[in-house]
Design goal:
5-stranded mixed β-sheet; elongated; alpha+beta; 4-stranded antiparallel β-sheet
Length: 340
């Protein structure tokens, strides 16, 4: 019986190999019939052939990690049939019958119209020059550091704020480097390549987005101090950036398709929302008579400040004074002794 060998790597990418000529060898060495890019697979890991009875078997060639099925290490030789699944290293081997029934094709109702031959070369745009090249990634990182330095310089009122600016730059640069390093170690694939600069660029874009929104948010709080929607907008922007940064890091690692990366980002944002809600319940503030005011000070002309004119303020103050006087008069009447 002819069979097909399906190999699925650690990233979920599958390849199909027709087993017409036996035996075939599997391993990481380039001399094998089937080459696996898996650091947990030996140079010559296993071979596929038939025994004396004509049964298809997989034989371990003395590898370090051997053949495994359902998490258990198997013997040196395993008989296989359609549906058998074995694991070597981090790769899954699944044997399938060539006569296996496949699902019918899907109707392509939204098939794109063919492009003129002169436009075919432009049909697939190149990868983003920002995140796809070393120069672009370095430019993003430098722009982020410059943006935080400028924000720290403009936000300080000290006579000499060079030390403060340098401190902010160092803290942001080192914190971003640590974050990118963690993603580099977590998303390092079987190619063993380091994508530190790509992860640093993704984190830099996220930080610049949040820095820009902080500036916008401060102006919104200044112009509309009583608007209850401003905190909700801040949370929505934060979760959007978090979703994008998770998808971006996974894209740099190259471990998931685009849709899967964004799904993971949305799930991460949902978990963060749940944590915020839980922390809010645990740290629910008790009632206090001390008022809290969110205020922003901006160096803008007086006509742009959302305040009331002096005449209107005098009227409001007079109404407040009348209300207080009336309340005091009622209190005095209640406390006055009753005549016998």
């Amino acid at each position: 019986m002819a069979m097909i060998l399906e190999i699925r790597d650690a990233r979920g990418v599958s390849t199909l190999h027709r087993l017409d000529k036996l035996p075939v060898t599997i391993g990481r060495a380039l001399s094998n019939d089937i080459i696996l890019d898996d650091p947990y697979v030996d140079g010559r890991h296993a071979s596929i052939g038939t025994d004396d009875a004509g049964v298809l078997t997989v034989e371990d060639l003395g590898s370090l990690n051997g053949l495994r099925r359902n998490g258990t290490r198997e013997a040196a030789r395993v008989a296989v049939e359609p549906g058998t699944e074995l694991r070597i290293g981090r790769s899954l081997l699944r044997f399938r019958d060539v006569e296996e029934v496949v699902a019918p094709a899907l109707a392509d109702e939204d098939a794109p119209k063919p492009l003129p031959s002169v436009l075919i070369a432009d049909a697939a745009p190149p990868r983003s020059r920002l995140l796809g090249t070393t120069a672009g990634r370095l430019g993003i990182a430098a722009t982020m550091i410059a943006a935080f330095a400028l924000a720290a310089w403009l936000g300080s009122t000290a006579r000499s704020n060079g030390t403060a600016v340098l401190s902010v730059v160092l803290i942001v640069a080192v914190a971003t480097l640590v974050w990118a390093g963690l993603w580099t170690m977590a998303g390092r694939g079987s190619d063993r390549r380091s994508n530190l600069l790509g992860h640093y660029a993704v984190a830099s874009l996220a930080l610049m987005a949040m820095l820009g929104w902080d500036i916008v948010n401060s102006w919104l709080a200044f112009l509309f101090p009583d608007a209850a929607i401003i905190p909700a907008l801040y949370l929505a922007v934060f979760l959007s950036v978090l979703t994008a940064v998770v998808a971006g890091h996974l894209g740099v690692s190259g471990s998931m398709p685009r849709n899967a990366r964004w799904r993971v980002g949305v799930i991460t944002s949902a978990v963060v929302v749940a944590l915020f809600f839980f922390v809010g319940l645990v740290n629910d503030e008790k009632f206090t008579d001390v008022p809290k005011f969110a205020a922003e000070v901006k160096p803008v002309p007086a006509q742009f400040i959302p305040t009331m004119p002096v005449s209107e303020f005098g009227g409001v103050a007079k109404e407040l004074k009348d209300d207080v006087d009336e309340a005091l008069a009622k209190q005095v009447d209640r406390d006055a002794p009753v005549a016998p």
